[in-house]
Amino acid sequence: MQRDKRKDKIIQKLQSAGSPVSASALAREFGVSRQIVVGDIAILRAEGYDITATPRGYVLPLNQEAASIYQIACKHNRAEILEELNAIVDCGGTVLDVTVDHPIYGELVGNLHISNRIEAREFVDRVKESKAPPLSLLTDGIHLHAIICRDEATLELIKEKLRSIGILFE
């Protein structure tokens, strides 16, 4: 398959996918190497496509007309990551990213795109397996999440749940 046709197919796949799509999955589908797909994604980004790389694959931005993005501040330890993520997704939110304010490097952002309990569990399992510290541990557990949800009522529900389990940082 020629590069231009493959790039069109990649965009179509990302637009129709309900979750992140890995470079490996795209490579299998198109019969090319993972590195070819990574190169195609780089070219698409250079052409102006707003493709985000998450730990589970590539995504295009969510439809912002149907929902809004909000920031919430949280504080917890490593053992409470799953409880935090589950609280957000159970109340109707999607965790887009995590941001910490590092004293030397400034703002550090990690893309997450977690929208259900399965994705939350997979993320926590990857953190455990990698033995890499989560970003929030760099700042004594204090961090921000960009979350997407339907409306402010949903945001308030999420905040109330996080407050009730002692994770909302106010």
From TrEMBL:
Ni(2+) binds at H76, E84, H143, H145. Keywords: Metal-binding, Nickel. GO terms for molecular function: metal ion binding. It comes from the Bacteria. The keyword Metal-binding applies. Residues 72-168 form the 3H domain. InterPro entries: 3H_dom_sf (IPR035922), 3H_domain (IPR004173), HTH_11 (IPR013196), NadR (IPR026043), WH-like_DNA-bd_sf (IPR036388), WH_DNA-bd_sf (IPR036390). Residues 6-58 form the Helix-turn-helix type domain. This is Transcriptional regulator. It comes from Mogibacterium pumilum.
